[in-house]
Amino acid sequence: MDSELRLGVFLCDCGNTLSKAIDFSTIKTDLENLPDVTYVNISHDLCLETAQKAMQKDIEDKGVNRVVVAACSPELYEKGLISVIQAAGVNPHLLSIANIREQCFWAHPDKTKAAKKATTQIKLALNRARFLEPVEKTRIPVNRDVLVIGGGIVGIEAALELSNLNLKTTLIEKEAILGGKLNQFPNLYPLQVNPEEMLAARLKDITERQNIDVLTSAELIDVNGEVGNFSARIKESNEEVVRNFGAIIFASGYNTQFSSQIYGFELSNNIITQSKLEEILKFSSEVKEIPKSVCFIVDVSGEHSRVSTLSALRNALGIKEKFGSEVCILCRNLKIDGAGLEKLYRDCRNNGVLFIKFDHLPEISKQNGKIKIEVEDVLVSEEQVSISYDLLVVEETSVPPPDSRFLSSALNIGLDTQGFYQENNIHLYPTASNREGIFFAGNCHADLDLMRALTEASNVALNAYQLLAQEKITVEAERVIVDPNKCRFCLTCIRACPHHAIREVEVDHEKMAAQIVDLACQGCGICAVVCPAKAIKCKDGSDEQILSELEPFGEHV
Amino acid sequence: MIIAERKPLEDIQEMITGYKKILILGCGTCVTICWAGGEKEVAVLSSQLRLASKKNGNELAILEDTIERQCEKELIEVLKDKVQQADAVLSMACGIGVQTVAEIFPDVPVYPALNTKFMGMPEREGVWVETCRACGDCFLDKTGGICPIVRCAKGLLNGPCGGTNNGKCEVDPEKDCAWTLIYRKLERQGRLDVMRKYYPPRNFQTVIRPGKIETLQA
Amino acid sequence: MKIKGAFSPDIIAFCCAQSAYQAADTAGSMRISYPENIRVIRVPCVGRVDVLHILRAFERGADGVLVLGCHDEACHHLSGNTRAKNRVQKANTLLQEIGIDGKRVEMFTLAPNQGSRFARIANEVNERIKELGPSPVKSAD
Lengths: 557, 218, 141
Prior knowledge:
The complex is a heterotrimer.
Chain A (H helix, E strand, L loop, with lengths): L6 E6 L11 H9 L4 E7 L5 H14 L3 E6 L2 H14 L7 E5 L1 H5 L5 H20 L6 E5 L4 E4 L3 H12 L4 E5 L21 H14 L3 E5 L1 E7 L5 E7 L2 E7 L1 E4 L4 E3 L2 H4 L7 E3 H9 L10 E6 L7 H17 L3 E6 L9 H10 L3 E4 L5 E5 L2 E7 L7 E6 L1 E4 L2 E3 L4 H8 L26 E3 L9 H19 L3 E5 L3 E3 L9 H5 L5 E6 L3 E6 L9 H5 L5 E3 L4 H6 L9
Parallel strand pairs in A: 1-2, 1-3, 3-4, 6-7, 6-12, 7-8, 12-23, 14-21, 15-16, 15-21, 16-17
Antiparallel strand pairs in A: 5-24, 9-10, 10-11, 13-22, 18-19, 19-20, 25-28, 26-27
Helix pairs in contact in A: 2-3, 6-7, 6-13, 9-10, 10-11
Chain B lengths: L1 E5 L2 H7 L5 E7 L2 H4 L5 H18 L4 E7 L5 H5 L2 H6 L2 E4 L3 H10 L5 E3 L1 E11 L2 E6 L15 H4 L26 H11 L30
Parallel strand pairs in B: 2-3, 2-4, 4-5
Antiparallel strand pairs in B: 1-6, 6-7
Chain C lengths: L10 E6 L3 H10 L8 E6 L7 H9 L4 E6 L10 H18 L7 E5 L5 H18 L9
């Protein structure tokens, strides 16, 4: 590595617009006088290919080894410019950008002051450039097997998709049989296929695939290691096995719970939960006394759960189909945002299901062996109505799978306020956890309808494939690095890292020290700050780089 | 390990009043781990003192250094040149380190920037609790690994007092009753017979202070 | 001689790349103006900002320091913004200890599209620091 700094500065006046306010030629002359500045260029359009090709040539010809650009926001063209300097043979981390457009000329109407600020910004970008460090890429071998936790339809679908992508998958399910909620649902409206058929087809497929290994009555106990190299302890019946994986997918679903506190009454033989109703509908031929009228109550808490809405609609149709009873659905709101769900609602209406919208919780009591309901019909009559039904079906709350708290703690993956797995960012990374290589699909992390859940199954299969497509993953090596001589092994960084990207290693067969796992590190720099021995360095954004931008300060009036 | 805490800044400022050049010396062992006196804390304190001196118009130059540990003569001796440049040394080690530095460099005033608090361990990130009092006659074999000298408010040796309250201590209701913890531990290990013995009042003079242990060359 | 009425404070704004830096860009794109004496330093996460960086900023003549990161529970690195909040609090204390008004350091949260919020924060803080006056450690060198 060369020790002599040869800075190349590329000033862009954004199609001649900035040069009206700032005199680049004076700046150019000043910069050229600096001992470590090899070359200064003024361009009008660094975003265009011709200028970029010229920039590449300039860098090559002049032997520039640190590049400074003054132009628009790095958010726009940083990646593009990095490609240019890479093509010129300069390490991609040796670029410093001064944002003189969005964060200077466009934000400050006083052009004289803006020009002064731009000059300072350029100086600071040079300061930073002097402390930039190259980061090389390396290829790390990874285990290409994937673990899918949860043998419900989402887990099954994910396993099949992974198998299609030629990734060997282990699917574990804590019950003795696969299927999850599909073993419970009597129908899958708005889908026209019935659950038994859907499952049967997929289960046949799974057994025929060579690269899917199914373990039933199996639970995850613990996971060590990081992405590309997870080591999972699985309890199968009463034995413990250890298997290695490159990625882990949680598809462990949800449970349901009835809370008598919300309603103020208990369940009985004519007040039942959706789950109980589903059981009845599934074995409808065995029902002795068919209820002539059934009332559902949905969205009591005002949280509009999709699962809750869909259970009611699906089961309402189920009742119409099997028993032909009168059906009414009392609801505060219905969440029917999804493919086919509006139609499901219409199907219910067309089949004679009544809908009564309420604002205040209906009063429910028993009278003459029937359920009497007093409700204010908000939508149609705006009057208090009194209705009476044979059977009341109450909604349940979706609750996280029972082992999620334990697994969250053991694996260091986050939970949301309700205890479901917390996705990284609901809009940008809806199936990613806070840990690289661990993904979530289905209702174990969100309130989804079946179609969405199945889409997520495909998503996570692709997420895993993106990671493990090749036997080795290219990664930036030592972008954040622990100096083992300064490391006190106090474990602070290991505990603080939100991505579980720091491991313990033995150094020179002697002492223990922390070591960053390049594949899992996301470069946030939290470890570098918390380290009490200042043993951790972030090459992208080191202390020296940050502090170099703290001077000089401009003169104030 | 030893847990210490930085003294209030005004106390430190009083110690270094009048000096024009000081060496702030960190220690890389216990006090680094408990975030009190490692390289990081040395940098923060230096920055504060520089800001204060600029603000007050005093002249103060600060040298910074951190060594592996300040309780080792050989590791301190190498600092000779730096120490000679300074009017005073502000040590960010525990009391042991401060005294060792003071002994090696008797001509230079050595001041403590920390208060040494106790021997303990991290309960979780950023929280340290005392767990050992160095009583010199370890009792932990009889208490399932839980020390009643530290964790019992009354330092009892033969089971809880009458004030034990649903597993909490009557002296400090926030604290767990140590003997409840000890009972549950021994119960779990099937060793409750250990608690059925009576242990006479302990001899707190097992260690004549200041303590000293002499061994032959190995 | 510096005239108090015309004091233009030197304010450092540590901006996280996921939110605040983009908000500053958004302000510019929407041509919403804020004082040019606010200097933005881009960091990958506001959790990268050290108490030491804040103190050094004052050593180098800053009159105020802003730390701008993602909204609560929206930090891409989970605990980055909480840690930054704690560190800003610590910096307040450390500055108060030496007689520098802790209000010179403040943390705010925003989303990447909140250009007007960025500008509003920048303007308000600028006024506040103006009222506090130049930092008592403004160096002559």
